[in-house]
Amino acid sequence: MTDPMVSTDWLEARLHDPEIRIVDATLPLVGQPGRGRDTYEAAHIPGAVFFDINVIADPTTDLPHMLPTAEAFAEAAGSLGLGRSSTIVVYDAHGLYSAPRVWWTLRAMGYPNVFVLDGGLRKWRAEGRVVVSDAAAPAPVATDTAFRAELVRDLAEVRRHLEAGDAQLLDARSQARFSGQAPEPRAGLRSGHMPGALNLPFDGVVAADGTLKPEGELREAFAGAGVDLGRPIVTTCGSGVTAAVLALALARLGVDDVAVYDGSWTEWGGRPDTAVVTGG
């Protein structure tokens, strides 16, 4: 089993390794103002490029940060110096929030050596490690993709899973949002969840310091949510960001074929023709 995480010690020892590419994937928390780029420009790990989740996305839909086409992704990734032969380390400023989304995106596009910095910039700075404010200027590279459709689910596929019962839908939103007790932060969405979905809020797999919880605690968290690690799993959330946190935690447990529902609740809860239930 290959751990999808690397430590701050590991990365600091390789800051000048030409085979390592560092990616800042910071996205503001839902409901918070500002841009991830603002955080990046204020302070980031030396050599890191900024991956704008809201820009490297499908421009033909009003759903947030949906995957772009493979061709558009290759062009954007190449402009950041991200070739498929590199070892890529992704982090965000919160500890563990939006970095897994970019980890999943790169994997879905066929990048084989992608890792998440455990604890992210939050842990890096708490340990007194160096940060810079000057933007990196990577040399563009020509790259391609090898799209892994098995890691992505769309609306029709999720509907089929729910009807057939052949995969577990695991929702990373808070219990209050999942049950319909709390309104959605995005306007126009119904409250509740998909029939038969399970719920494990993403912060249930993240420790207080922003690192991923130890393996034993992860297993307890998934078991407590009713997840069978031996059956197919599709993760979902509000917009496809924190669903990837659960996918990352599952990968640490050796379940590395978890798919993410890209449109997530923004798509499902925003449509009049999808089944929604409350409670649970």
Task: Summarize it.
The protein is an alpha/beta fold.
Shape: globular
Q: Could you tell me the number of beta strands?
A: 10
CATH class value of the largest domain: Alpha Beta
Radius of gyration: 18 Å
Corresponding CATH superfamily of the largest domain: Rhodanese-like domain
Task: Report strand order across the widest sheet.
Answer: 1-5-4-2-3
- How much helical structure, as a percent, in the residues? 25-40%
Report how far the terminal alpha carbons are from each other: 34 Å
Multimer state? single chain
User: Which sequence of SSEs, written as H and E, runs from N to C?
Assistant: EHEHEHEHEHEHEHEHEHEH
Mean pLDDT: 96
What features would you describe in this structure?
The protein is an alpha/beta fold and 280 residues long. It has 2 domains: 5-147, Rhodanese-like domain (Oxidized Rhodanese, domain 1, 3-Layer(aba) Sandwich), CATH 3.40.250; 150-268, Oxidized Rhodanese, domain 1, CATH 3.40.250. Helix content is 28%, strand content 12%. It has helices at 8-12, 36-42, 70-79, 99-108, 120-126, 155-164, 175-179, 215-224, 243-252, 264-268, and strands at 5-6, 20-24, 49-50, 87-91, 114-117, 152-153, 168-171, 198-199, 233-236, 259-261. Helix 4 packs across helix 9 (243-252). It is globular. The two termini are 34 Å apart.
Descriptors:
single chain; 280 residues; Oxidized Rhodanese, domain 1; 10 strands
